[in-house]
Amino acid sequence: MASDLKQQLAGIEKAFARSWLTFKVTLEGGKRELRVYAQSFGSPDLQGDVIMNEPTPLTSSPSAPAREPITCHVLDLTSGRPASSVFVSLTLLRPLGPSAPLTAVTSPDGRINRWSGEAGSSLSEIFANLAEHDDGEMVWSLKFDTGTYFGKSKTFFPEVEVKFYVNAKDGHYHVPLLLGPWSYTTYRGS
Questions:
Q1: What's the pLDDT tens digit per position in 102-129?
Q2: Which of 32, 35, 179, 181 is the most buried (most CB within 10 A)?
Q3: How far apart, in whole angstroms, are the C-alpha atoms of residue 88 and residue 101?
Q4: How many angstroms separate the most distant Cα atoms in the chain?
């Protein structure tokens, strides 16, 4: 999907936060058509008309950015909702580290798909360079600022650090964090 279509979908999701959204993609005449329907909680039937009907080319947009090799997602177990506005840093520990951290803040859906940092190599460039050398194995650290998210003295963990192995040749790594004020768990996602 083109990035502008994703932004439109994000706006629709916010507008229908108390509804289920159903997406239907059809292919006709070399174009992809996306239709979005809203369904209210507790109602078995789709309600209303098509919210958006926008044909888009099947090929991806050249301006659409490639996915970062490391992404993460934070879910707040106390509310059962995504944890938005959590500050997260990503640091390469080995083989060349520790590096200057890349940083981001979780979006309203609790996700980080883009990292920013000091002028220099991007995360994708680091992966590409290390994939060409040695065996491409790396150790990374994700640090989640849970103290600020929950508030002072409202969590046992002021910071959660997750260290993990990565092989640059394996492509994408997604690290979800299931977070509560007194516990957390993580795993390698997809």
A1: 999 999 999 999 998 876 668 888 777 7
A2: 179
A3: 10
A4: 59
